[in-house]
Amino acid sequence: MMADTKAKFFHIMEILLDTDEEHPKTAVQISKILDEKYGIAAERKSICRDINVLRGECEMDIVQAHDNKDGFFLASRTFEDWQLKFLIDAVLASKTLAEKDARDLVEKLRQQGSPTSRQLLSQITPVAPQPVGDRRKVKNYIDAIMQAIRANRQIAFQYLHFDIEKQQKPRRDRRYQVSPYALVRKGDNYYLICNYSKYDNLSYYRLERMGSLHILNDVPRKPLKEFFGAHERTGLTDFVHQSLYSWTGEPICLHLKFPSYELDDIIDQFGRDVELKPLEGDFCEGSVKVQAGPGLYFWLMQRADNVQVLAPQAVREKLVRMLKNTLALYEQSEE
User: Fold this and answer.
1) DSSP three-state, residue 254
2) Rounded-to-integer distance, Cα 144 and Cα 215, Å
3) Which of 221, 222, 225, 178 is closest to 203 using CA atoms?
4) Using one digit for the tens of pLDDT, what is the confidence trace for 56-67?
5) pLDDT in tens, 17-26
6) Where are the extended beta strands (E) located within the chain?
7) Where are the alpha helices (DSSP H) in 124-186?
8) Which pLDDT belongs to residue 99?
9) Is 74 within 8 Å of 117 (Cβ atoms)?
10) Which residues contact 276 (CB under 8 A, 6 or more apart)?
């Protein structure tokens, strides 16, 4: 009897999740659904008592319609419509999830809205998940990495790359053994931030390029404080913000000169932490802390016609060499 009472209570809550101001349900309608869908017999008065418990003890925002004959509806939910729209768009824009996983996740998010919201979210989101390769392992790897971090254990995996036949093969014969610390999404991809046991720094690894990942239950993680001291969380946050395109390198203070119309892109890339100073001729100077890895040079090459590196000198010299090599590549192709 107690089990039936709990089941009835749960299913009434479930039924009310499928209501809103435009789609209320009466106690009689709820009773009919309980009987037809769940095989539970319930009188109107007992349903009203359960709804009062949901209102009081469970603090559900259940409202009685203006016309009492129209019944009850759920007036507020965990997610607002704009939040659901934002999350659904993030799933649809991702190239990390397999198409079926993306569709399932979008539908679960959509079901968090009211009946009216679900219809609206479908109308204003006329985009299907992007077909990608076999990414079924990504969700399993996210789960495994979270388990390893929770258990304070290292993980091991192979790191893969495509060959000429477009098949993923191990990059090297060895396995990578790392201490995992965080999972971040940058651009279209998910990355693991970790310490490769052979080195004393942090690295990024793309999840969809991993293979044969497993938790090393007998090997504890290296403490994160070995890299950032007492400021573990802020240090890790700065590490993410300062590494461009998920490439790491030596921390530097980068000084740039650029025309004022590049300000939007500079702030988009480096955030509001960039220090700015106006120069003559509608130019600006900007200073920002970054990591001098391949990602930095990739960004500088894209902006080479407008953005000039003032310092450090080593970055200037390396960029000049890269530009000369690029020019030589095209000059050779014209001969």
Assistant:
1) strand
2) 7
3) 178
4) 888 888 998 876
5) 888 888 899 9
6) 62-64, 72-74, 153-162, 168-170, 176-186, 189-196, 203-206, 210-220, 250-259, 275-279, 283-292, 308-311
7) 136-151
8) 82
9) no
10) 263, 284, 285, 286
